[in-house]
Amino acid sequence: MSRSVSIATYNIWHHPHKRQERFNALCAEIKQHQPDILLLQEVMSTFQPDEPFVSIAEHLAQSTGYPYWMMDPYMDSLDEGLAILTKLPFERTDSSAVATRNINHHCAIRIPFTIDDIHFAVTNIHFNWRASDIRLDQLQFVNAWIASQSNDETIEFLGGDFNDGPGSLLHQAALQDWVDLADSFAARTGQTAATTLDPVTNPYLKKNDGVTIPVRYDWLLCQRSPSPVTLQQVRLIGNHRLPHHLLPSDHYGVFAQLRLH
Question: Core-most of 84, 179, 244, 259, by most CB within 10 Å?
């Protein structure tokens, strides 16, 4: 038994700049790629002032045809948070905020799936942008939290905005337990994994002093496990303007097509 699944991660930029136009562009981008599971970071908790309980996640799900979704605000910034949109049904959702009082550990949400007798789970993270030691602590916590929720039959995926690039201490630590899908696909095809923050090509970053050279902060990882996973494709999303649209975000997203066995 095998199952084809596509997963994407995308930081959609919590910023008021041309919000409606960028939302329309984001909808067009999602409709073009149609991942089965979409991990989103920096999702505004309120989209319209007259709809205080309707998040961008709900608007996106309704506008792009996703029947299932979850949203979890950041504990230190309740006007935005993490979200997962999915075409696949699930029985429950998990938030790391339930498992800890440490606000740095309020950084992950997870959905387990059982499809065609195949068990897999997807965790969405957004790590701290200020300090590498906090990010390393967050990775250690998330690894332990996932292990407490998982079992040997579950194929685990981890994606999001890690706020660190390849070669960093965080990336080296992650590779002890996880496979970087973009790196793996690039090595197999004789390429280099594409950057997701690019001040050269993205106009929203050209005046950002914090990002001066292209870097890959957005990762999709698969846990090292005995269950076979066939990686079919990895590509960027949101890195080209679609007709009549803006770029949706200051980040580019990452899309992976896989076959689970």
Answer: 84
